[in-house]
Design goal:
Lipoprotein, about 50 residues
């Protein structure tokens, strides 16, 4: 029973770290990119895809 709990906790932590890294990478990538919306700079500074 304890072993199942341990593995579950480990998987949960792994999932959290993966999603956290993905979110951070996305935010950092958006900041580094030039905020263009179809060649026109966006007022909000966010990149929009069609």
């Amino acid at each position: 029973m304890k072993r199942i709990f341990k593995t579950g906790l480990l998987l949960l932590m792994l999932l959290f770290s993966l999603t956290g890294c993905a979110v951070l990478d996305a935010l950092r990538g958006d900041r580094e990119m030039i905020p263009y919306n179809n060649g026109v700079p966006d007022a909000t500074g966010t990149i929009r895809y069609n």
